[in-house]
Recover the amino acids of this structure.
């Protein structure tokens, strides 16, 4: 079993993900250049953080047209797992795979720190080893991580139990304190915190391990 990590021009967390998945968890991992369409041999895919295409238009707005994402949509339709972290979450909303949008942080500043998160949903296996009501700690590093959606979409997310993580102390003004959501089917997770930076007991803790391990559940 293996996972793929998509690499866009401007990605800067692709190696972090590979270090965590392969180095810490022993999961075979390979990079996928944004121009490839070949996803054969992969069981799950990660869209990593960074600044795809320099974020020159809008975070994730240019990346959504990458050839690899044409194949990704079919991959998702087959029920296989996809994880979008930070910029990857932004790409998933630009693609329309996840609802809502990520906008400038409420205070218009870049935030880089560890935050506490409430596990909200137990509907899917994404938060392995945790259940609804648990508290975990993960790092964030973003300038446009404020999740926004309509009242109707927020109600839909709540009704479908698709809100996976909420900030305990909202750092960016996200509606409903939302830090991570899934699609209706539950096989796609988008989140602003970085689980790959919380896979080592010495550096960042290990609360992110379960999310990466869940890629192959």
């Amino acid at each position: 079993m293996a996972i793929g990590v998509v690499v866009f021009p401007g990605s800067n967390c692709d190696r972090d993900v590979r270090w965590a998945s392969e180095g810490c968890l022993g999961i075979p991992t390979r990079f996928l250049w944004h121009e490839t369409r070949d996803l054969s041999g992969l069981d799950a895919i990660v869209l990593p953080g960074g600044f795809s295409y320099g974020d020159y238009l809008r975070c994730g707005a240019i990346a959504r047209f990458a050839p690899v994402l044409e194949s990704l949509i079919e991959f998702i339709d087959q029920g296989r797992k996809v994880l979008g972290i930070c910029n990857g979450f932004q790409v998933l909303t630009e693609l329309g795979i996840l609802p809502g949008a990520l906008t400038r942080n409420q205070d218009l500043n870049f935030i880089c720190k560890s935050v506490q998160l409430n596990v909200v949903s137990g509907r899917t296996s994404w938060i392995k080893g945790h259940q609804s009501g648990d508290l975990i700690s993960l790092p964030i590093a973003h300038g446009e991580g404020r999740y926004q959606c309509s009242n109707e979409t927020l109600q839909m997310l709540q009704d479908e139990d698709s809100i996976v993580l909420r900030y305990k102390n909202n750092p960016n003004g996200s509606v409903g304190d939302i830090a991570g959501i899934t699609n209706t089917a539950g096989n796609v997770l988008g989140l602003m915190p970085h689980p790959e930076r919380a896979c080592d007991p010495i550096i960042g803790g290990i609360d992110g391990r379960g999310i990466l391990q869940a890629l192959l559940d």
About this structure: The chain has one domain: 3-216. The first helix runs from residue 14 to 24.
